[in-house]
Amino acid sequence: MAKRLNIGADALEKLEYDSDMSGPGKENSLKMTPYCTNKFTVPRLTADAAATKIKDNLSLLASIESEQNCLPKHIAESQINLALSFFLGINRLNPKKSGVVPSVSPLYDASSGFSIFEVVHNVLLAFDCGYYSIDIKFNASREKFLHEFFCTTLGGQNLTPKEPWETFPEDETVEEHIPYSTMFVFDSGDLDAAAHTLASSFDDPVIPWRIRSVYVQEACYEDFVAKLKPKLRSYPPEILRDSAFTALFNEGMETLKKIKAKTIQPDSQHASGPVVPTICCEFSREQLDKPTGLSPIVVLKAVRTAKEAVTLAKNETGGMASIWTEKIALAYELVNSLNYNTFWINCIGKLNVSIPFTFRNYKNCVGSDFAPIEWFVKHSYIEGQDYATSDSPMVLDALKGASKVENSYHFEYFSVGSSDVIKSQSRKNKKWDALLDLVDLSDIYWRNVYVAATQWKRKTVVFPFGVTFAN
């Protein structure tokens, strides 16, 4: 596991960050700098008070994110607003929190590999869990945002100087799950809408549900490509200033040149320059992606049947799917066959505060009563524990499955874990007291939330409500 390393002030001074290079045409290399940690603290605020302060400073916060992480400002604003809506929604829907500050403070990762939606969402969830002092790991491209967010917007302070973060090879764990969506397009789907969704996804390269793999049924492959190509446009200029992004793109293009892979790019009248939205035909993700980042190049493959798509897609690790078909039975065939967390049918990125979505395996949960407890359990490094239950597990019906219709979308989730995983035994954990501080596990409601959050696999499915499906 990664560790923090205490070193002297002289060494701290050597960790110089690149200057802010936010002007037009200037490259930004802030993401290339080392990781550090700080302890930030904020005054105790109600959810509404914190949200008001963030909204009052939304434009400035979005501008900093745009400058430092090369993201279009309007996208940064929309991501921060989305995080706010979940923070407020959870506070209004989530009952029975003890309000006791847990004794163990988690280390939270807010580095540039995380979207600003995830950063703001998870910091606010920390407040929801009772943490008002948080250790945060970050790199230079997030330092300015974190200072503005904690110290100016919320009126807190930075309690510690930057402390270098180093990883010891002998303690390294499996690489952090990098989230992305895999798209499936069938001849029974709306090809024009699917092509528009894919083309639009290039505008935001860091949102967790970004599309990076596409499987298209052979029967509609040529029609889909014909609809897609004229919809492709240049990357927003802010993105092209990101040296980490362009480095991953150029490395991927070098790989494609070596194997002489066929690519799809925008027409010259819609985009120009060496870095443009690129789709590689009949290639695999693992040869493009790096441990440090997800290649912006999308891979596209033709498949004959849903079964073939499932077989090929089982190697995909992004954890999410966007399925385009008007046949609901076909959609659920993929839902049942793929080991993903989230499925969007004929849409993508539609969220609801009462239904759980997981974007980074074992790290993030957005929405529902799962969010605070799962955030606490995972970020405090408490492993999933067997919890003593009665002779027959009493998992609440609401945790076995739920559905909701809102804003013309139907949301549902269901457990796919067996009750066999819930054992009638418990094991001592050195951080058990911290969990007891957060929730009362003698309460059947929170006991079942804890069991579900730590031991049950779930799937979330979303599709437009009112759309006619033909079986």
TrEMBL record:
- Any Pfam family hit: DUF1487
**Entries under Gene3D superfamilies matching the protein:** Aldehyde Dehydrogenase, Chain A, domain 2
Q: Name one GO molecular function term.
A: oxidoreductase activity, acting on the aldehyde or oxo group of donors, NAD or NADP as acceptor
> What InterPro entries would the database entry show?
Ald_DH/histidinol_DH, Ald_DH_C, DUF1487
Enumerate the PANTHER family for this protein: AT02555P-RELATED
Name by which UniProt lists this protein: Uncharacterized protein
- In its UniProt entry, the species of origin is given as Hermetia illucens
